[in-house]
Amino acid sequence: MRFIVAWEQMKPSDLAILIPTRNRPAILKRTLEELAARGFGGHSLLVYDDASDEPLEIDKVVSLWPGARLLRGKTRCGQARGRNELMRSTTCPYALFLDDDSWPEHHAALMTALKDVRDDGITIATFQYRSLGDGKLSKPPERQRGPSAGFLGGASLFHVPPVLAIGGYREFFVYGYEEPELAMRHWLRGLKVEYFPGVVIAHNHLEKPDEKRDHREYDFLYARNGVLMSSLNMPLWFGLPHGLARSLRRSLHRKQNFMSKLSGTLAGIKMTFSLWPERTPCSWRQAFRWIQFNRQCAR
């Protein structure tokens, strides 16, 4: 059975739904079913398959959504590049980014947020995450709408042209801190990232053994990217120590894969210099203002 029964039911929209996925056809199918049931069938759908081991299974799921487009990477590249590929491939000016295990609980709330994003010139809107497993929220329920120092990649609404204009995600991040790094570059350029509490994204989080998650890679990338986030965007003699402090603090907090985290931290130092042309350092004043802004948003 198809999720949407006919093309005639589809309404034009300037909002596309963009989903990166890998090796989770059953979870992706549940997400598309939930989207269709909540009235999102009138929006175009693009899915990026990050070199799944059984790509035909992803094909079968995506083909159930009329008009959906499937992009496929030949080799695994990670979420950062996958999301960039999705943005570059959509013709819609606005994009709802979801993970393959998340969906908005109410269509009307999302469309209200889209109107506000348009009217207020917001580049990225981020939303509340609600875990289906335990009901936990990503933000305190009393948190009001306002500026944000970060966003959830699987619960966000992008105005695509200005995001691409500053380069989108840094693809060499693969994953790990790619979202706060992009939010940081937005803020430093005077672009708006805001939190909208009225939109709740259900998160059907489930880790399965056959997903082949590499926790050593996970810790390596977070340790490396924790350094790069600051060293690439701040004055070197401030940003490099600041990034090292972030990387080491996280490594000490997570008591596992010590050698992977150490290797990641050292790689972050090395890449700071090997990626010198990629640096977009702000002023010392901007760096201090960014730190203050982060603290304010965390309260």
Could you say what the CATH architecture of the largest domain is? Answer: Alpha-Beta Complex
The level 1 CATH classification of the largest domain is: Alpha Beta
**Rg over alpha carbons:** 19 Å
Average pLDDT reading:
92
Secondary structure: elements and pairs:
Elements: E1 15-21, H1 25-37, E2 44-49, H2 55-62, E3 69-72, H3 79-89, E4 94-98, E5 102-104, H4 107-120, E6 124-131, E7 146-147, E8 155-159, H5 160-165, H6 178-188, E9 193-203, H7 215-231, H8 236-253, H9 258-274, H10 284-298
Parallel strand pairs: 1-2, 1-4, 2-3, 6-9
Antiparallel strand pairs: 4-8, 5-9, 6-8, 7-9
Helix pairs in contact: 1-2, 7-8, 7-9, 8-9
What does this structure look like?
This protein is an alpha/beta fold and 299 residues long. It has helices at residues 25-37, 55-62, 79-89, 107-120, 160-165, 178-188, 215-231, 236-253, 258-274, 284-298, and strands at residues 15-21, 44-49, 69-72, 94-98, 102-104, 124-131, 146-147, 155-159, 193-203. It is built from ten helices and nine strands. Strands 1, 2, 3, 4, 5, 6, 7, 8 and 9 form a nine-stranded mixed β-sheet that branches. Helix 1 (25-37) packs parallel to helix 2 (55-62), helix 7 packs antiparallel against helix 8 and helix 8 packs antiparallel against helix 9 (258-274).
